[in-house]
């Protein structure tokens, strides 16, 4: 009787092992990553809402608030703390000289470099994207900045995101959001980024 039980157990173990042996014909492929696309409506006039939702995974209602002027200001979503999105912009004006814009960009370069930033592609001007591990509770960890010319004036555009959805490449996605934001900025300001 013991021998019969052992044989039954041995058969069960063999069956289990053969059932768990991987079939070499089955190949696992990762799900394709959905690209960030330029589509209305826009948050803060610059960032596609669906793009932000895709990149961040935010599902809540997004209301925005802004302060400042067309030349220098900021805009943010009021959905949570920290805000899902914060956008800041500044440009060279009669009051804000080119040297000051250069100084601001030098400061951003130093900070982003300290956190191992990725340089933006050259067509976006001088810029960086990085994850900032140490920030205050109301701040965003994911940040991208670009310094560029538009209409012969120097500009700086900052995008801050509170989170990146699981499975997304945060740096690549932030660069794509910046690309879209710069195009929108050019349309709104009637200038061509890079000129």
From TrEMBL:
Signal peptide: 1-25
UniProt KW keywords: Signal
Keyword Signal: yes
Protein name per its UniProtKB record: DUF3558 domain-containing protein
Natural source organism: Streptosporangium becharense
């Amino acid at each position: 009787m013991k021998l019969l039980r052992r044989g039954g157990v041995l058969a069960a173990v063999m069956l289990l092992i053969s059932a768990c042996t991987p079939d070499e014909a089955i190949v696992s492929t990762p799900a394709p990553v959905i690209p960030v696309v330029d589509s209305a409506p826009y948050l803060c006039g610059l960032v596609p809402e669906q793009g932000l939702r895709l990149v961040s995974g935010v599902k809540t209602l997004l209301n925005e608030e802004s302060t400042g002027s067309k030349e220098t200001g900021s805009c943010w979503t009021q959905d949570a703390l920290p805000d899902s999105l914060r956008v800041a912009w500044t440009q060279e004006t009669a009051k804000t000289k080119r040297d000051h814009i250069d100084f601001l960009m030098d400061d951003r370069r130093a900070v982003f470099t300290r956190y191992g930033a990725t340089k933006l592609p050259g067509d976006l001007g001088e810029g960086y994207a990085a994850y900032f591990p140490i920030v205050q509770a109301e701040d965003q960890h994911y940040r991208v900045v670009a310094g560029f010319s538009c209409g012969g004036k120097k500009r700086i555009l900052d995008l801050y995101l509170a989170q990146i959805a699981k499975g997304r490449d945060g740096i690549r996605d932030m660069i794509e959001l910046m690309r879209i934001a710069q195009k929108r900025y050019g349309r709104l300001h009637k200038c061509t980024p890079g000129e």
